[in-house]
Amino acid sequence: MTKVPVNGIEIDYQEYGEGDEVIVFAHGAGGNLLSWWQQTPYFEANYRCIVFSHRGFGHSYDVPDGPGMTSFVQDLEGLLDHLDIRSAHLVAQSMGGRTMLGFAVANSDRTRSLTLADTTGGMGEPDVEKALDDWRASQSSTREIGFRALSEGFGIRRPDMANLYLQISRTNPPRPQIAGAMSGGPSGAELSGLKTPTLFIVGDEDDLTPPHVIEMASSKIPGSEVLRVPGSGHSVYFENPDVFNFELQRFIQQSVARSS
């Protein structure tokens, strides 16, 4: 277990591979640094890969009455400073989008590219927030949130993997307060002026952050792309890693080529 002191706590992280280009992965509310076990073996041959657990998740324990998710961006800044990482490609899943979009807006010079998977990045655009709220209010699913993060078909096809997804989630301490994780973030000129290459990935069967909301979010960041993945739910990286990894690598390679 590797930890680094950041902002009054110890952030749990792991590092794989080496290379001039760095990729940092930020998990969602149902995960921790273990979530990326299908990504690190793929990318470590050519990239330096960093996975970490957000404050209050995995073994990154928050202090009593700590700042929680309001400190996610500052925690990431501190982690990258400690690891002497000047800039990186940022990859986020769900809740992790709040961290990565917030970091990209505050540190555009340190962000090589931004990939937001099944997340709006918590952007504070009123129409995006309303569309997401309306969608979630209209859904009557009785499935546990851990199951809703996967497409229904995935649980039938791969019950073993669906169980692993839940087991990773259950290695976390009691879930911290994350209400508002998908709202109240960057908006307006902060988004329209963002020059970072940005890719949104969304599962066609995402039951939590559906494609029409992601399309709306993408419209707020000029030049951003949207990739819809058939047969996947809210966790494309986990359900369909071959597509996720291939498309992420393609996007990163394109982003590097454009900046050269």
Can you put this structure into words, describing what you see?
This protein has 260 residues and is of the alpha/beta class. The protein has a single domain (2-259), classed as 3-Layer(aba) Sandwich (Rossmann fold), CATH 3.40.50. Helix content is 37%, strand content 18%. It contains 11 helices and 8 strands. An 8-stranded mixed sheet has the order 1-2-4-3-5-6-7-8, sandwiched between helices. Helix 2 packs across helix 3 (96-106) and helix 4 packs antiparallel against helix 9 (211-218). The radius of gyration is 17 Å and the shape is globular.
Radius of gyration: 17 Å
CATH class: Alpha Beta
Q: Which structural class best describes the helix and strand composition?
A: alpha/beta
- Structural shape: globular
* Helical stretch tally: 11
